[in-house]
Amino acid sequence: xxxxxxxxxxxxxxxxxxxxxxxxxxxxxxxxxxxxxxxxxxxxxxxxxxxxxxxxxxxxxxxxxxxxxxxxxxxxxxxxxxxxxxxxxxxxxxxxxxxxxxxxxxxxxxxxxxxxxxxxxxxxxxxxxxxxxxxxxxxxxxxxxxxxxxxxxxxxxxxxxxxxxxxxxxxxxxxxxxxxxxxxxxxxxxxxxxxxxxxxxxxxxxxxxxxxxxxxxxxxxxxxxxxxxxxxxxxxxxxxxxxxxxxxxxxxxxxxxxxxxxxxxxxxxxxxxxxxxxxxxxxxxxxxxxxxxxxxxxxxx
Length: 301
Ligand code: GDP
Fold this sequence. Notes:
It is found in: Cell membrane; Cytoplasm. This protein is α/β, with parallel strands linked by helices. It is built from 11 helices and 8 strands.
């Protein structure tokens, strides 16, 4: 948690300090409210949530008659936490099976951090004494399977991959799940290809992977990985993927490199799916469970 704060504070300071300075002025007039609005929009909170937040704050400042910066800061914190929604279930494997592996499919556009996230997540699971197998169903780029296997070696878990370039992704996924069942592991994580250029192709491929896996096991979780630095573009990607597969959780990567943490709110609104994990760097330990209150505190620090 301390690391989360340090990391986010470094990149998101503008939001907290800027807002606090604005709110602590003697007179919070229309100009100040406009600036507050602008600051929140710049943090990618999204238009609708920003307007709601500012309205709620204005209302509270009016009713509670407080101009004390500390109190206004607390109000802002409360309203932001409401927007991020602490009540969402952020368990990244909601159902655990005693008798067969949990299967997690990881989807997202190339370069957002899927493979890295799988590596980091495998490390977390291994540390919890879980047996894990990785499946390299991104068979389109040979380098992708290699990269996944390298992460596997690094954290000490086996990777099922094909030696044939352009092999059928669904059959690699099937083999990984079969190996997972045979070896009685706890979790099988499947990396997939993310070529968004062709929505029909993507839909066919991800749909087929899921169908083929489900001959053997249930897909318990479909994690959509999004790059926090891509703003609106990331939102559009999220929409396409959620139309193609039933996304059950979001992993927001590269939050260490952006002042746009507000994107969490925008994405959750758009998909109705919780952000479950956040990526805070390229290293094996740079993955954290998402916690609404801690996140808002880091934003406002
Ligand atoms: P994939 O194509 O979706 O599998 O993406 P990769 O896992 O290969 O990641 C693409 C690049 O983003 C790599 O250089 C990663 O090291 C980097 N990356 C992934 N997650 C993070 C993160 O949370 N923070 C930062 N700064 N870089 C990340």
